[in-house]
Every structure is written in structure tokens, then in C-alpha cells.
Amino acid sequence: PSLILHRDLSGRLRETAGRFSREALVEALFRVEEARDALEGNADRRLLLESFLLRLHRTALRAASVRRKFK
Fold first, then answer.
1. Is 46 helix (H, G, I), strand (E, B) or coil?
2. Three-state SS for 18?
3. Coil, strand, or helix at residue 49?
4. How buried is 42 (Cβ within 10 angstroms: 0-12 exposed, 13-18 middle, 19+ buried)?
5. Radius of gyration of the chain, Cα coordinates, nearest whole angstrom
6. How far apart are CA 2 and CA 43, in angstroms?
């Protein structure tokens, strides 16, 4: 079974994933797991979403900065 639910978006997913290092993608997945665990622990959803998006954004910015340095 494929891990991609929306196969019509697989090209876009490949293109987007190519912008980030493996480490940045793993960190992003870790952030998703953290958020999921917090939800299961009854965290405030609004606060959790805000925190999650800020952390994910910082991860993306760091990844973009690193990629620019090595181009």
C-alpha cells in the first residue's frame, strides 16, 4: 500500500520534498508526532496548533538556510 493518499499530488509532493534535507523532513515528522501526542494528552488545541505551526515554520526556515549555504 502506498503512503500517499492523494496520488494526484505526488509530483507536487516530490518537488516540495526535494527542497528539504532528510534531516529537516525527519524533524518535521517529529513535530507532527509531538503535536499528536499532546492532543492525546488533552492539550489546548488552539495553543497547540499555534505552537506546532511556529515550530514547523522554524524547521523550514533552518532547512532553507542550510540549503542556501551549500548551493
1. helix
2. coil
3. helix
4. exposed
5. 14
6. 31
> What's the rounded Cα separation, in Å, for the pair 39 and 46?
11
Output the pLDDT for position 10: 86
pLDDT tens per residue across span 20-68: 888 888 888 899 999 999 999 989 999 999 999 999 999 888 877 766 6
Question: CA-CA distances (angstroms) from residue 63 to 3, 6, 30, 38?
Answer: 23, 25, 15, 25
Task: Give Cα separations from 70 to 8, 14, 20, 49, 55 (angstroms).
Answer: 32, 21, 12, 32, 23
**C-alpha cell of 46?**
488552539
